[in-house]
Design a protein that fits this description.
By secondary structure, this protein is an alpha/beta fold. Helix content is 38%, strand content 22%. It binds nicotinamide-adenine-dinucleotide.
Length: 486
Amino acid sequence: MNSQETPIWEDNLYLGSWKSGVGERFAVTAPATGETIAQLRLATTADVDRAASIAKAAERQWSEASFDQKAEILRRAAALLRDRAPEINAWNTRECGSIGPKADFELQATYEQAQMSAALPMQPYGSIFPSSMPGRRNYWRRVPLGTVGVIAPWNFPILLAMRSVFPALAMGNCVILKPDVKSAVCGGALMAQLLQDAGLPEGVFHVLPGGPEVGEALVEHPLIKMISFTGSTAVGRKIGETCGRMLKKAALELGGNNAQVVMDDADLNTASSCGAWGSFLHQGQICMQTGRHLVHSSIADEYIELLAKRAKNLNCGDPATEQVHLGPLINEAQARRVEDIVNRSVAMGAKVIAGGKRNGCYYEATVLAEVTEDMPAFAEEIFGPVAPVTTFDSDADACALVNQSPYGLAAAIHSKSTERAQRLANQLHVGMIHINDQTINNEFQVPFGGMGSSGNSGRFGGPANIEEFTTSQWVSVMDEGVQYPF
Ligand code: NAD
């Protein structure tokens, strides 16, 4: 697109193809500067109904498209992600405050999701079961659900939308995506262009940028057969309630308060590096963020010193114009929330060892020591660049501290004895555990998901996608009709 041209999403919505929208115009602002960088047409609740009807009409044709046609479109989408990397990354940086390496990582992970999804349509999708009835053949097969609603957050808006969109399409569903308005260009409009240019037939994919009311209308729409939601636990719970009432399938990937356990025999250099990456990457705005550093009391001083040294080396600034480690938080309200968690914890006795200051949307990489279980920095999901350190004296204490959180997304354990670390891992109620590594790990081919308040056991990735984005059907075949007593 030439820079003089009006982007298509300014006046149009992608409802299976670009159509003029009637909703309000939304000013997209760069969190780093507060400047308006684009205008976007918002969807209305009436658009949810429009999209659902268009998708319904496209369901059959798409589900019956051959497996190699689906695979080819997804492979083309993957190739286009690479071709358009400069444009997509520039939007990710300006619209979401992402630093270059985060934008690169997100794009690469989304590319891998597209590639993996392109391989799904050629996987076996059923089994043949024996029958006690002579002459009967029992097929059991996975079938598409129909239309899937995907509701995505703003923090990794491309990956967390497309990790559901691509596999749902691969399994023969139509998809309606509702991105967050704070990330609706890179996490919505650009993805509509991508799938259109990849050759996805009209009517199959839709993007409805909007707020909670649009999300609610999507969840409540009877033509939408599944909701794949990534976001906060509070909203996930509400969506789960509605889906439960409607008997609708729901995959809920929610918040976290992830612990990194550092045992007394750990390599503190690597543990502190993992801790810094886990707490500060993308300003801590990651569901798998290391929100609690649980450190054996005998090595805590040394660990805190190493972690604080790493934190003090990190600079904040506008990633669109400078080389920085930390960009802005998504908005000032979010930065104030982080500040409030730190201030309330300090008032209760926590010590600021590094950082601890806010400047508008920016918050410094912060290390807090002497954090106890009753403090907000321990108990709440921070979603900001803060590393709270709490000490323990035995492996049993560490286990109790990790499991005390109602969340159960990810954990890391550092010890030179992988046997000891695995003994602890076996007792943790979390969906993902990384030994001698950090909590923010994502591999497209491995099922991803949490326990407890972090989700309802939905899993994304690799073989889990086949089950997640389909339902099953038993078909029995008798060559000749059967006579029963009536
Ligand atoms: P959020 O729940 O406020 O919003 C997420 C999405 O839901 C947005 O698109 C929003 O518009 C929509 N929404 C809001 N209210 C809704 C409603 N009543 N009905 C339907 N949709 C509604 O979350 P957020 O603050 O944007 O994102 C941060 C949260 O997401 C954190 O808690 C984080 O841990 C979590 N998260 C989880 C994962 C994971 O994979 N488990 C990944 C990233 C983020």
